[in-house]
């Protein structure tokens, strides 16, 4: 009889524990790197800690708005100094399911570099490049700003190659998921925010070493490169990067979150990869150059502010638009180079316009006051330009596309 009672109690406890575990919210910890007295890498007019925080908060907002079944925890939401071990403790104490640390890259001297890269825990030997080692040293150097750091990082010297073998077995069970998430980040951020893909790397980064869940550290771009610094501080760029990181998170969660909430949990839905929200207004105007201009290879588009739009009518369409009303266009390509109108990069599209944003040439097609026409045209061009999206102008200035759509609908309803 006693054995039966014990068995029943065990079954009840197992059932309750299973329900509690199934009903546990997925916990995401977002770690904006540096902060407070630790400014991180310096730029010409900004510092790393602020860029990290802005993108981390943008990412977190998208998760909070679109994933009600996810608990979002920040290691910091203001400009404060948090030791590396404490950042890891925050994630460990709340039993996080995923940890992401947001950072900004830099190079010393007059060297320039561009692009987005992701790090997971590792010894660096599979990517034994000096640049990767420098990243590890720079991100770990904050340890020396902490009191009693030797007590918290026993056996770990950020400047010692020997320390790379201390943690080889730590997080082995999480490494596969970490690398998978890193690949998702590279895919979505490089495609959605049009960043140069600098790949997935492994390094002995203390903030990853001390966590006990799948974890990645991202390097958004190079604050030491002038155009990258402008991009990283641009309001629209911050939003787009946050959105792209969210899409990577949504893919990861849908793949690995096996929990079941009661009564029901929806899938984390990815968002349209490019956002036109928070776009600042353009200033001057230019037209597409003639076929005598030089051609160049395409480069990744980078959303920035201070734009300069101009429409180019073509023999095929000769569309006349009223600039006093919203003019909708499809943005298909961005480059640092100025292309001639018949360049092969446009894949046969002839009604090509462009506008400038901080030295970047952004190419569009399909200008029309009728949003429905542009919407249908986008369906035709996405086969050649999968990242194509709709933007809007009015009186020569770029406007929020949603505001343009509302005005378009109002104009139709008053006719």
From TrEMBL:
Q: Name one GO cellular component term.
A: outer membrane-bounded periplasmic space
Pfam (any one) = Amidase_3
Entry's SUPFAM superfamilies? Zn-dependent exopeptidases
Sorted UniProt keywords? Hydrolase
Q: Which residue windows does the record flag with biased composition (Low complexity)?
A: 307-321
Q: Which CDD domains match?
A: MurNAc-LAA
Catalytic function, reaction form: Hydrolyzes the link between N-acetylmuramoyl residues and L-amino acid residues in certain cell-wall glycopeptides
For biological process, the GO terms are:
peptidoglycan catabolic process
Q: InterPro entries under this entry?
A: MurNAc-LAA_cat, N-acetylmuramoyl_amidase_3
Q: Which residue stretches belong to region Disordered?
A: 267-321
Q: What class of enzyme is it?
A: hydrolase
Domain named MurNAc-LAA is located at 88-250
GO MF term list: N-acetylmuramoyl-L-alanine amidase activity
Q: Where is the composition biased (Polar residues)?
A: 267-277, 285-300
Enzyme Commission code(s) on record: 3.5.1.28
- What protein am I looking at? N-acetylmuramoyl-L-alanine amidase
Q: Which organism is it from?
A: Leyella stercorea
């Amino acid at each position: 009889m006693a054995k039966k009672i014990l068995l029943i109690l065990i079954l009840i406890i197992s059932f309750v524990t299973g329900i509690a575990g199934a009903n546990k919210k997925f916990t995401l910890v977002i770690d904006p790197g540096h902060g407070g007295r630790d400014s991180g890498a310096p730029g010409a007019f900004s510092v790393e800690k602020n860029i990290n925080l802005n993108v981390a908060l943008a990412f977190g907002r998208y998760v909070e708005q679109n994933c009600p079944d996810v608990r979002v925890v920040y290691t910091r939401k203001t400009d404060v100094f948090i030791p590396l071990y404490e950042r890891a403790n925050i994630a460990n104490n709340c039993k996080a399911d995923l940890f992401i640390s947001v950072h900004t890259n830099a190079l010393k001297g007059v060297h320039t570099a561009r692009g987005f890269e992701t790090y997971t825990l590792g010894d660096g030997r599979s990517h034994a490049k000096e640049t990767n080692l420098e990243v590890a040293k720079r991100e770990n150097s904050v340890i020396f700003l902490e009191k009693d750091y030797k007590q918290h990082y026993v056996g770990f010297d950020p400047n010692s190659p020997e320390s790379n073998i201390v943690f080889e077995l730590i997080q082995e069970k999480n490494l596969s998921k970490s690398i998978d998430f890193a690949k998702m980040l590279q895919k979505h951020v490089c495609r959605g925010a049009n960043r140069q893909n600098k790949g997935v790397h492994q390094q002995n980064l203390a903030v990853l070493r001390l966590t006990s869940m799948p974890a990645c550290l991202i390097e958004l771009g190079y604050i030491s490169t002038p155009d990258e610094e402008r991009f990283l501080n641009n309001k629209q760029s911050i939003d787009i990067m946050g959105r792209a990181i969210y899409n990577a998170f949504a893919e990861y969660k849908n793949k690995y979150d096996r929990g079941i909430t009661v009564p029901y949990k929806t899938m984390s839905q990815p968002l349209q990869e490019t956002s036109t929200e928070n776009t600042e207004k353009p200033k001057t105007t230019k037209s597409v150059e003639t076929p005598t201009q030089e051609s160049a290879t395409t480069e990744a588009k980078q959303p920035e502010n201070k734009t300069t739009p101009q429409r180019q009518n073509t023999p095929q369409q000769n569309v006349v638009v009223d600039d006093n009303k919203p003019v909708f266009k499809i943005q298909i390509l961005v480059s640092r180079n100025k292309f001639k109108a018949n360049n092969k990069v446009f894949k046969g599209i002839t009604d090509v316009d462009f506008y400038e944003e901080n030295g970047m040439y952004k190419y569009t097609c399909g200008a029309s006051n009728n949003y429905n026409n542009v919407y249908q045209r986008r369906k035709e061009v996405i086969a050649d330009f999968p990242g194509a999206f709709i933007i809007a102008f009015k009186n020569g200035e770029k406007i929020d596309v949603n505001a343009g759509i509302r005005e378009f609908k109002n104009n139709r309803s008053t006719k």
